[in-house]
Amino acid sequence: MDNGSKATEEQLRLLQAIIEQQKMYIQAQDTRMAEKDATIADLRKLVDELQSLKANLEETLAEFRRQFFGVRSEKAGKKKPEEAPQENESPDGLPTVEVKGHTRTRKPKATREELYANLPVTDVLIPLSDDQRRCEWCNSEMVTIGYTEVREELRITPAKVERIRYKQEVAICPECKKDGDGTFAKANVPTALMPHSPASPSAVAYIMFHKTFMGTPYYRQESGMFQLGLKLPRETMANWYIQCAAEYFYPLYELMHENMLQREVLHADETTCQVLREEDRPAESTSYFWIYLTGSDGLPPIVLYDYQPGRGGKYPRDFLEGFSGLLQCDGYQGYNKVADVQLVCCLAHCRRKFYEAVPAGRRKGCKLLDIESAEAIREPILPGEQEISKLIPAEIGLAYCNKLFFIERELKDLSAEERKTKRQELEAPIWDRFWNWLGTLMPSGGSKLEKAVNYARNHRDTLCNYLLDGRCEISNNAAERRAKSYAIGRKAFLFHTSVAGAGASAVMYSMVETAKANNLNVFQYLYTVLLYMPDYKNEPAGIEMLLPWSDFIKEHCSGLIDVENITPEKHDALPL
Fold it and tell me: Is 116 inside a domain boundary?
């Protein structure tokens, strides 16, 4: 091979090497560009996630600020003058409010006679003085022609504490005494509420009433008792409360529980509490009061509280064992463990989540309708295609919920069958529109709107189950109001010292709330039970007659408090 050929081959090899190097360089450049593009995409995704996280954190911070500094309750803002409904007069002279589809009569304000109708009246006659009884012109004696009513006032007599000493009459037969064998007779003494204790039905009822109904802790009652001249330690009051709750009220509680399990519609909810001395648990542990109550079935209402150390689903499962029907509750998954029930989820919880998703600056225009409110309101209108563009999704969801609540308010006085029919006619189409609209939403992850949308989607079936039975309510607010009754007391006494104290409180809150639900005078009911139970606690018929809805209790506990004429030594026996 000549030198020229060798040179050409060398040049070719050199050229191929250069080409290979160029290819490798281009490949490296492509790899770097691909990595750069991937990095840029990752960074953009990270920026989007951080922006979403920032928006969610700002939303959460705004909610915390509202709860801490602002108004916590879901109150509707005041209506603007132009939004106020027009008032007319009905044929009977009462003001009415025009609402789409019907005219509602506005409830008139109560008069003084109506407010004070149940109070006893004492007339105080103010006589003329001796100087006024002589005529200033002829000095003749004036003749009374009547009395003119000048004013009316309310007079309150504070509680009075007395020491009652029962002295038993003892008699002996004088003829038998002559024979050296005296025959004695002793008067029957009323059964003691607590042997070897100064506790009386009125004293224990007073303590229970103020602790449970008024939410007054024992240490405040101790100070109040001292002002009445009585030094009664808080430990003594607690012992009386616990012992009487267990011995005299728990038999009623059990009977009410048995009666509740026979119903077909129930409500359930739970709220937190703290018990300091609980076995194998630190004092800081969170325990729970479970609340159960009967629904709108036309039968006497029952409200029961149950103390438990936790929030597991086993607690409602065990308490409601034997119940079969509709159970109205919130979206807590623990209620799924209750057997043989159909859950009915609360729309108020769903609406609350949409309300919380509305930015704070736009909440002033949001109105949350209350079914039980007597205030006349204009019917909400669902947003059309043009209005939807002006509203954010949270406001649209809130509008759907308010529409359903407004319809429920119009149907609340109907019978169960009529309400079921009207619901299918008026509310079912709104639910269809709501689910169709909800399916179009794709909220950002972690936002309050996403939580509201997911809550509605996850509970789609149970939210609509109230349509199946006219006795069901659209919300679980009835149970939440009973949870609030306990929460008000908890805010004052803060905790329970022992499990026995928590259990006694559960029993007594059950008695008080059931008495309230049956329109009883709560103190008079507690006093009546303590008055009769010492003699009838072992007689099932007597216990049943002391239930809050019995005819005997309605007759004796629907009026004013009377502890002067009805006493342990002077009261009628139960008409068994």
Answer: no
